[in-house]
Structure formats: structure tokens, C-alpha cells
């Protein structure tokens, strides 16, 4: 038997990092997906094939008629830790252990703030649990995906696995979520081309929080308040133009606060300012930062902003909200 599942990437519109400290955040699933195929094996081995992951530290050497490969096994094992934990938890939940092949292909850039870790965890749990005959709800998959992130990263708010499993446009706080009214968001995502590790960035913010709580706590509190304001705007009776103007302003404040936490980079800030100069109403980091992506809100100006991002050295992506989260694409008996 074989199961193919997929799960989407996300952008965090407001509230990354502060969400780890129990503040609310707003996020949306977007139409880039990770696909995981799981099939039963005849033996009891578990084999993972990750087609999109590059492992640093591969060395190739030649002699006359031979070629030798050496790889950094520590790094290779670490890079697959989300998938391994997801398989473990799905098997634990099903109460069976079987040999399986898991094969991953992904459209989501890795370590770019678009939730690739959550998407791969959610799609793996979806595929493996179904393969083992377990019918989990999307919410149950979200909770297991959160556990995967906690185990691998040491800290996780759970927003990414929740958005990836459920899909759509969500307000999230301490493990609970509500759907926000669906709205088309005229956004452009700008990818710096470099990556940041969520585990390391969350740990860096934690160190600052512990060493200077009198400075960091007010920043996190301001982020939480800003998310409440953004929710009020999104659910208000204002017309779209007014909503976008207010949301843009809040995005810019959120970016400044993230910069104060220390998670921006020169390139991220360059893309943010390039987007604003080209007419975006707001622009900020999305996700953990340290590289990765920013996004801009640019009604009527998406093309201009995309061009500005390209000129500033980034890669623009015009994305749409994905209403669907985890999807079982195919089950072959
Ligand atoms: N296609 C994939 N195959 C296997 N593992 C993946 C894949 N995509 C992401 N991952 C895992 O997620 C990690 C990146 O997660 P993270 O640092 O949270 O960044 P983000 O979630 O923003 O992309 C990778 O180092 C890898 O361990
Ligand atoms: C920084 C954080 O708020 C979001 C991380 O998102 P990503 O892994 O960078 O896509 C961490 C979390 O919410 O667990
Ligand atoms: Mg992640």
C-alpha cells in the first residue's frame, strides 16, 4: 500500500517570535506544498529519501578509476530529524511499527521562514498515519506536528504545524486557533536566498529575553498588542482600502520590533525598504528571520514591488492563500 499526502507552507502576517511567549499571532497557509509518499516495505527498515535537502559537508575524491564519497553523517541525520520524529510519533500513535519507505519532494524553500519544517512534519504524519490505518483529524495532526517541532527545536509555538494542517487564514494563541474571514491578500514574498535556522533564532531571542527581560518583555508585549489590533482591523467593517492601509502600518511596526529583537539581516531589511519604496503599504520579515523571507502588502503594486525586490537582489514570489491544509492526495492499495 502507498499513500501520498501534501501540506502547505505559511506566512506569518503578524506575531512571529512573540507567539513563542504565549502572545497571539496571525498566519495564512500559502500555495507552495511539500509532498510525502509513504509505502510499506517487506522488511522492518525505515528509509527516507529527501529530494530537496542539500547536506553540507559532502566530499568527493577521485583516484584513477575510483570515486569516493564522504559525507557528514551527523549533519545528514540532523537535517532529517523532523521527518524521523514525525514517523516515530505517527507509529507511536498507531501503536504499530512497520518497515516503510518515505519519499519527500517539496516546493518550499528550506529555512526561509515559510514553515518548511512544519509542512514536512504534517505531510509525513498525514501519509504515515494513513498508511498504518489510522484516521487522524487535521487538528490531531497539527498537535502531533507541534510535538515534532518541540522535540527537534526545543521550543515551538505550534502556529506553523497548525496552519499547515488546517489551512486558510488563522488567528492563533497558545494552541488554540480561530479562522479569520477569508480575504484576498495582495502580497509579494521576497526571498533573500539565504537561510536561517528557527531552532537557533528562537534560542537567540530566548537568551536576550533572559539577559535583558526589562527590554525584551515590553517588545514582546507590544507585538502581542499589535496582533490584537490587526485582528480588529481584519474583522472590522472597514472597506478593503482602509484595512490594507492600517495593516500595512502595523506590519512596519512589527518589522521594527523584530529588528529590535535581532532577527533581521542586512538583506532582509534591504528587501523590506525596497518594497516600501516601490509602493508597498507595509513590509516585514515573515517567520524566524536570520535570512529567509520578508513579505510586502502591495494592493495594485504587486508587479512594481516584485521588480524592486529583484533589483535589491531577492527573489519575489507572488503567492495566494491556500484554503486547504493537509491533503491526502492518493491512496494506492
Ligand atoms: N523537503 C524537506 N525534506 C526533509 N526535511 C525538510 C524539508 N524541508 C524542511 N525540512 C526540515 O526543516 C528544517 C528547516 O526548518 P526551520 O529551521 O524551521 O525553517 P523553516 O521552517 O522556516 O523552513 C530543515 O533543516 C530540515 O530539517
Ligand atoms: C519564530 C517562530 O515564531 C516562527 C518560525 O517559523 P519558521 O520556522 O521560520 O517558518 C517560531 C514558532 O512560532 O514556533
Ligand atoms: Mg520551521
UniProtKB/TrEMBL annotation:
E.C. designation(s): 2.7.1.36
Broad EC category: transferase
Organism: Pyrococcus kukulkanii
Cellular component GO terms held in the UniProt record: cytosol
Name of the protein: Mevalonate kinase
Chain ranges of the GHMP kinase N-terminal domain: 82-168
InterPro entries registered for this protein in UniProt: GHMP_kinase_C_dom, GHMP_kinase_C_sf, GHMP_kinase_N_dom, GHMP_knse_ATP-bd_CS, Mev_gal_kin, Mevalonate_kinase_arc, Ribosomal_Su5_D2-typ_SF, Ribsml_uS5_D2-typ_fold_subgr
Catalytic reaction list: (R)-mevalonate + ATP = (R)-5-phosphomevalonate + ADP + H(+)
Pathway field: Isoprenoid biosynthesis; isopentenyl diphosphate biosynthesis via mevalonate pathway; isopentenyl diphosphate from (R)-mevalonate: step 1/3
Known cofactor(s): Mg(2+)
Active site positions: 160 (proton acceptor)
Function (record text): Catalyzes the phosphorylation of (R)-mevalonate (MVA) to (R)-mevalonate 5-phosphate (MVAP). Functions in the mevalonate (MVA) pathway leading to isopentenyl diphosphate (IPP), a key precursor for the biosynthesis of isoprenoid compounds such as archaeal membrane lipids.
A Pfam family that the UniProt record links to this protein: GHMP_kinases_N
Domain GHMP kinase C-terminal: 242-309
UniProtKB keywords: ATP-binding, Cytoplasm, Isoprene biosynthesis, Kinase, Lipid biosynthesis, Lipid metabolism, Magnesium, Nucleotide-binding, Transferase
SUPFAM superfamilies in the record: GHMP Kinase, C-terminal domain (SSF55060), Ribosomal protein S5 domain 2-like (SSF54211)
Chain sites annotated for binding ATP: 109-119
A GO MF label: mevalonate kinase activity
Location relative to the cell: Cytoplasm
Quaternary context: Homodimer.
Record-stated family: Belongs to the GHMP kinase family. Mevalonate kinase subfamily.
Top-level taxonomy: Archaea, Methanobacteriati, Methanobacteriota, Thermococci, Thermococcales
Biological process terms in GO annotation: isopentenyl diphosphate biosynthetic process, mevalonate pathway
UniProt feature coiled coil, ranges: none
Amino acid at each position: 500500500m502507498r499513500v501520498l499526502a501534501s501540506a502547505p507552507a505559511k506566512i506569518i502576517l503578524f506575531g512571529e517570535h512573540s507567539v513563542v511567549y504565549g502572545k497571539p499571532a496571525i498566519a495564512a497557509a500559502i500555495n507552495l506544498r511539500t509532498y510525502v509518499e509513504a509505502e510499506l516495505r517487506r522488511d522492518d527498515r525505515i528509509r527516507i529519501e529527501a529530494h530537496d535537502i542539500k547536506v553540507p559537508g559532502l566530499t568527493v575524491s577521485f583516484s584513477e578509476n575510483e570515486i569516493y564519497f564522504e559525507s557528514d553523517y551527523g549533519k545528514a541525520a540532523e537535517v532529517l530529524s523532523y521527518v524521523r520524529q514525525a514517523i516515530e510519533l505517527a507509529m507511536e500513535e498507531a501503536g504499530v511499527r512497520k518497515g516503510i519507505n518515505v519519499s519527500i519532494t517539496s516546493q518550499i524553500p528550506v529555512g526561509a521562514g515559510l514553515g518548511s519544517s512544519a509542512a514536512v512534519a504534517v505531510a509525513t504524519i498525514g501519509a504515515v498515519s494513513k498508511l498504518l490505518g489510522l484516521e487522524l483529524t487535521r487538528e490531531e495532526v497539527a498537535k502531533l506536528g507541534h510535538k515534532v517541532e518541540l522535540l527537534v527545536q526545543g521550543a515551538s509555538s505550534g502556529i506553523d504545524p497548525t496552519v499547515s494542517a488546517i489551512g486558510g487564514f488563522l488567528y492563533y494563541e497558545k494552541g488554540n486557533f480561530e479562522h479569520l474571514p477569508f480575504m484576498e491578500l495582495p502580497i509579494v514574498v521576497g526571498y533573500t536566498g539565504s537561510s536561517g535556522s528557527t531552532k537557533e533564532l528562537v534560542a537567540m531571542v530566548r537568551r536576550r529575553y533572559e539577559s535583558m527581560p526589562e527590554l525584551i518583555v515590553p517588545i514582546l508585549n507590544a507585538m502581542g498588542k499589535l496582533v490584537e489590533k490587526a485582528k480588529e482591523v481584519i474583522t472590522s467593517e472597514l472597506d478593503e482600502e482602509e484595512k490594507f492601509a492600517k495593516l500595512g502600518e502595523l506590519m512596519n511596526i512589527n518589522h521594527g520590533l523584530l529588528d529590535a529583537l535581532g532577527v533581521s539581516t542586512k538583506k532582509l531589511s534591504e528587501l523590506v525598504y525596497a518594497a516600501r519604496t516601490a509602493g508597498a503599504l507595509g513590509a516585514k520579515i515573515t517567520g524566524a528571520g536570520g535570512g529567509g523571507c520578508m513579505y510586502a502588502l502591495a494592493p495594485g503594486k504587486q508587479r512594481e514591488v516584485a521588480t524592486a525586490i529583484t533589483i535589491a537582489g531577492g527573489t519575489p514570489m507572488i503567492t495566494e492563500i491556500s484554503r486547504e491544509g493537509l491533503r491526502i492526495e492518493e491512496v494506492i492499495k
